[in-house]
Amino acid sequence: MPNQRHARFTLSAVLICFSLSGAAGLIYQVAWGKALGLIFGNTAYAAAAVLAVFMGGLAAGSAVLGRWSERRARPIAWYGWLELGTAATAAASLAGLRAVRGAYWAAYPYASGHASVLLAVRLIGAALVLFLPTFLMGGTLPVLVRGLARDWDGLGRRLARLYWVNTAGACFGTVAAGFFFLPTLGLRRTLDIAVALNLFAGVVALSLSRREEGFAPVHRPESRPERQDSRLLLACLAVVGATAMAYEIGWTRLLATQLGSSTYAFTLMLATFLVGIVLGSAAFEW
User: Fold this and answer.
1) What is the dihedral of CA 23, 184, 52, 260, to 10 degrees?
2) Is residue 49 within 8 Å of 126, Cβ to Cβ?
3) Mapping DSSP to helix (H, G, I), strand (E, B) and coil, where does residue 108 land?
4) Which pLDDT tens digit goes with each residue over 106-157?
5) Which 3 state secondary structure label does DSSP give 224?
6) If you average pLDDT over residues 11-37, what whole number do you get?
7) Beta carbons within 10 angstroms of residue 154's beta carbon
8) pLDDT per position as a tens digit, 183-192
9) 140, 226 in Cβ contact below 8 A?
10) Could you give the residue ranges of the DSSP H alpha helices within 70-154?
11) What is the percentage of the chain residues whose pLDDT exceeds 70?
């Protein structure tokens, strides 16, 4: 009974941490979108750049760190360290983006007649600055799935719960950042709030991991789907992801013409998009 109570407490605490992590991630995304708008001078370019780098970093982190975590013990501890690493790298992101803006101004006299070159300088610079924090964010979900799922039958249910809890936090972070934090506190303090959320989640996760030694990896079933079928499903998911990002860019552009503010348009689009994901994921868990 004490072990069961501890397991329930650990699950609840980790879900709270992961919700705060989702809020931090979308505060970063809205803040970075605002910062990139100052660099690109174009709403569509800024939104496309932040979404491409953000999702690319998440994908790379999930693929690399998820596979890496399968060979490591104490996954909740590693989750805590990923949160702390995200906080550290994201805290330096505004300074990095200022350097990208400086590089653009330095390159402008030599490439003023080549718009594509100047766009590439800004896009590559933004990608270099934002890739590491988003890469670390991407590793948090697969690491937590390994730490919390005890059997193969419960894997889908735990994954769905982690996904919608994280996305619910992301929705809150989007609205708070776009409509409250940025207008009242400014870019720097808004980013500091997200850093504080990551730090809190990391410290709590590390404290929870002290009694993690008894956690066992998920038992895999003997039968697995055919490789060809798996590749087809993954290809379909990739197409769905591409269309989702296209919707986000298009909806941001349409809302900007109605609201007259690129930040409000981006925030409203993201919040609505994430609410739909939360409801869908929670429904399918049920």
Assistant:
1) 130
2) yes
3) helix
4) 888 877 777 788 888 888 999 999 999 999 999 998 888 877 765 555 666 7
5) coil
6) 91
7) 13
8) 899 999 999 9
9) no
10) 75-91, 93-111, 115-138, 140-148
11) 86
DSSP 159: H
Identity (one letter) of the amino acid at 96? G
Model confidence band, residue 215 (pLDDT cutoffs 50, 70, 90) = very low
Cα 187 to Cα 25, 30, 180, distances in angstroms: 15, 10, 11
Contact at 8 Å (CB) between 47 and 266?
Answer: yes
Q: Specify whether the CB–CB gap between 48 and 127 falls below 8 A.
A: no
Above 50 in pLDDT, residue 173? Answer: yes
Measured between its terminal Cα atoms, the distance across the chain in Å is 26
Contact call for residues 68 and 142 (beta carbons, < 8 A): no
C-beta of residue 215 within 8 angstroms of C-beta of residue 147: yes
List of residues 6+ apart from 271 with CB closer than 8 A: 171, 174, 175, 178
Q: How many CB atoms lie within 10 A of CB 188?
A: 9
Ramachandran area for residue 222 (φ above 0: left; ψ -120 to 50: alpha; else beta) = alpha
129 contacts 97 by C-beta, under 8 angstroms: yes
